[in-house]
């Protein structure tokens, strides 16, 4: 197949990138049936293993909330804001190591994801062996640093194989692992709680120890199944690989021979759309972190026992997963990001308002948890994918994803300090702050939408004054190419 620099038109469908009539990337469109078979094969080979790893990843990061109500708070003497410190220090590690670890991932390849997982499994076991709360803080900090590039790396790897119109739905399916993990955490923790006193360890210690051992085992077993970069893949036939690489060159986010310097990395971070994406992601991630870390405590405050509180988290997460997948498919089908981000924001805000009003009936407050989960888990992946496809390809996309996810998780600094012990179970300050940040995210999404539309109009005007065929390729210029159009 003959290729050039521009995006292609596939099966008569329009893309987000406007092209002149003479810049078709291929002499003829891809065969739809062949392409469908290729995508199905990619789905089977790429998504399941990354999904399983993310399932384990999220269980490890969120299990501190489950351990808290199983005796950790009392044994480690977590008075005042000590538990909150143990929560937010994880995100400090995330924030500090995020972008550097993402560059390491991009340079040394996808199998580094398994190495990261192995080391964070060790830190999780350490959380179960600590004697003092200060030691728990250190273990959580190291865990955050080890996990810092996993979600970002998986997001980049998925985008390396798929076109931008396939990207969102695959990433949302990947993200459901984190949602399901929240449900599994409650169920598994209620089972592990039965080990209380075994070998002289409390139930909360066994939650960390068992889940850490599982993480290490999964990291070793998954190593052969992590796919390489597209140019090195061996699980496709030569014909399928040729088609896949043609798609990657035309619309994927990966560039095989791409290098970056520290100065270039800093220059990438000057793009205003990346920081708008950080604000979008932060506005909903703060609420998602609040849900995962404090939901068991909130539910226990509604009158449930510890075990009942663990079990009642399950329907909340499952509903959030179903909601996010359904509307992400609609977003991808209609090729509209802003509208569906705002839908997620509206649902999230509704749930937060319920919790702020704090109606007397526990069932109504429990309903608010469902709204919060649904809104968060739709808006979060949209914010990441929307900005990443607007960042072009290669290292710029990798850095953009790393910045959005890792700086976006700074919301956890807020959530872990505004859900104050003295306000249990109402947490008025926590939910009010979450609503304010959600509105900040909605404002950033609106700015991104209007800004991208304005830039596209400017590019349309300038492109009309240029030759029909340009010498520079899309791979060379990325989002600076005159034919590149920003998704809205």
From TrEMBL:
Transmembrane portions of the chain: 85-104, 110-130, 142-162, 168-192, 204-227, 314-331, 338-357, 363-387, 399-419, 431-452
Keywords, in A-Z order: Membrane, Transmembrane, Transmembrane helix, Transport
Entry keyword Membrane: yes
Molecular-function GO terms, alphabetical: transmembrane transporter activity
Membrane topology per record: Multi-pass membrane protein
Cellular component per GO, a single term: membrane
Annotated localization: Membrane
Pfam families associated with the record: MFS_1
Name by which UniProt lists this protein: Major facilitator superfamily domain-containing protein
Keyword Ligase part of the UniProt annotation: no
